[in-house]
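Re: the 360-residue chain
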Amino acid sequence: MDISQSRLSFLDRFLTLWIFIAMAIGVAIGYFSPDVAETLDSFRLDTVSLPIAIGLLVMMYPPLAKVKYEELDNLLRANDAKKIIGTSLFLNWIIGPMLMFCLAWIFLPDLPEFRMGVIMVGLARCIAMVLVWNQLAGGDSEYCAVLVALNSIFQILFYSLLAYLFITVLSGWIGGVAASAYVNVSIIDIAKSVFIFLGIPFIAGILTRYVLLKKRGKEWYDGTFVKRISPIALLGLLFTIVVMFSFKGLYIINKPWDVVRVAIPLVTYFLLMFFISFWISYKLRFGYELATTQSFTAASNNFELAIAVCIGIWGISSLQAFAAVIGPLMEVPVLISLVSVSLWIKKHYYKENKGTKTIS
């Protein structure tokens, strides 16, 4: 753990602490000066809060600018590409969403707003912090970058459809007519939020990468530019958290147990997805590096997108958005701990063989 922690940047190492501080500031504002957040949210374009939109776009751009889109073709041409990609897509887009959906209904049957926020987290596949966890655990960095690129593309194409399926169709079917009417969400509303908060930074990230790679080269881009823009994402996240929690200051003080209840399915999800993915990768005889990449990619989530879409659909003061923001608070300490678990698995179940990782 100490070795892994030392390899994190100062900001990443204490990410959970920064989130706690942002939450505390937001709660204090909501309790002592409730008009501040309402004033910020009054600046709107249609249904979009401009301050929050700026914060979310700033939060989404850096991770999307980091993605190595140019390596997609190399993976598609590699040996066992279909097996690798097929496994990743199966874990990320079938197992992950279904598992979070089931956990949300098991642990939050009486809290529909929180349940929807948790489900939205499960549908958003990781495109940012997984690069950090994968590096610390000694995973395959090239495959990780390519799988992140694939997840980015799939979220553009399918997030709206899956959100409508799980939030409106399946939740309505399980909860009956009353629940169906209550959780009814337009696929157009979801698509609009996805385009604004994922599509725009996605396009900006691709353009930035290709233009600057051509002008300045890969070494400068990955070694200098990416390091300069990375803190911007954290600032956008913390600003969003401060504003969101300022709306819920009194709620958190009066009902802290609700925060705990939201955390339970999230933590359960991170742990189950990690071990399920590692077990499947082990059975498929993936080497340690690839198994680690598959596991962290599947266990992590794009909480930035989930927060953005929940805000876009239900509003900054909604319980759905509040539940989504609990995601990074739980994910960071759990995934850092799983780095140590992954290294333990490597020591006990894998062996070195001529420079490659093979199953013992």
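The two ends are 24 Å apart (CA to CA).
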